[in-house]
Amino acid sequence: MTLPYRFPKSFTWGVATAAPQIEGGAFEGGKGESIWDRFSRIEGKIHNGDNLDVACDHYHRYKSDFALMRKLGVKNYRFSMAWPRIYPQGRGAVNPKGVDFYHRLIDAMLAEGITPWATMFHWDLPQGLENEGGWRVRGVADAFATYADTIVKAYGDRVKNWITLNEIFCFATLGHDLAIHPPGTKESSQMVNQVYHHALLCHGQGVRAVREHGGKGARVGLTDNSVVIAPLMETKEDIAAAKTAFIERNARILEPIYRGHYSADYLRASGPARPTWQKGDLELISGATDFLGMNIYFGEYVRA
C-alpha cells in the first residue's frame, strides 16, 4: 500500500495579499499616487473601470480583518507595504502617517498571534518615480535603497521575514512589453532587459538593507513566478531537457541572483538587446539570501 504524501510538521502555512489589492485608502494618510492608481483610471484598462480607491478597505478594517484571520486559524501572513504610502513621491520626504500606519498594522497582527512576512514591493511603484522614468532608469534602485532602509529600520524589531520584490516578470514584461500592467508601455527588447536589471539592483538593495538593519534572526529572499518545467516522461532525456529549459526560461532573474553573472546563453540570445551594468552590480544582486519564494500557477511540459 502506498503511503499518502504528507506535509512535514515543520511546514509553515499562511495566506498572502498585496497592499494595492486590499488596502484602499489610496489617497488617505498622505499616501502618494501609485502607477496602479494612475493606470486604473485610463479608460478601458481595467474591467468595469474598477480602481484601488477602496478595494477591501483594509486600511480601515485591518483590526477586524486580523480577528477574522485568527478565527480561521491563520498563523502566518504575507503582506506588502505600499512604497507610495511611505514615500509619496518615491523619494524625498518620508510620510510619518504612512510609517505609523504599518506600525499599527504590524502590532495588530502580532496581537492576534499572526507572524508577519513583509514584501517590500508588490507592483505599486510611486507615480513620482514613473514620471522620472520608473524602472527604465537606474535611479529607481537608489530610491528603493532608501525606502528599504527606512522600513527595515522601522519594523525590523518585529518583522523577521522579508521579501524584496514580488514577480519581476509581471511588472517588467507585462508592464513594459505586453503593456497589460502599468505603466502599459511597449518598450524595446533592450529596455525590457534593462528594466529587469534595475529590478535586480533593487532586490540587491533590499537584501543589503535587511543584512544591515534587520537584526537578529532576520531572513530575506525574493518571490519569483518562475516558469515551472516538467518532463513529459520520466526518462533521463526528458528530465535533462526539462532542467535545461528551466534554466533557459528563468536565467534572466535567477542566474544573476544565485550565480552572480548573466549566463552566456542569455547574453548570446539577447545580442545587442542585452542589459548594461556597472562594476559592483552583480556583487550586489547576488548577495546571499535565505530563501526563494516560488509562486507556482501552472507548469509546462518539455520533451527531449
Strand order of the largest sheet: 1-2-3-4-5-7
Please provide the count of β strands: 8
Task: Count up the helices.
Answer: 12
The rough form would be described as globular
CATH architecture label: Alpha-Beta Barrel
Q: Find the CATH topology.
A: TIM Barrel
Q: In whole angstroms, how far apart are the ends?
A: 33 Å
Residue-averaged pLDDT: 97
Please describe the biggest sheet, giving its number of strands, its sense, and whether it closes into a barrel: 6 strands, parallel
- Which series of helices and strands comes N to C? EHHHEHHEHHEHHEEHHHEE
The structure class reads alpha/beta
Low-confidence residue ranges: none
Strand proportion, as a percent range, falls in 5-15%
Structural notes for this entry:
The chain is of the alpha/beta class and 304 residues long. It has one domain (15-227, 287-298): TIM Barrel (Alpha-Beta Barrel). It is built from twelve helices and eight strands. It has a six-stranded parallel beta sheet with strand order 1-2-3-4-5-7. Strands 6-8 form a two-stranded parallel sheet. It is globular and about 55 Å long. The two termini are 33 Å apart. The mean pLDDT is 97.
Keywords:
single chain; 304 residues; six-stranded parallel β-sheet; 12% strand; globular
What's a concise summary of this model?
This protein has 304 residues and is of the alpha/beta class. 44% of the residues lie in helices and 12% in strands. It has a single domain, classed as Glycosidases (TIM Barrel).
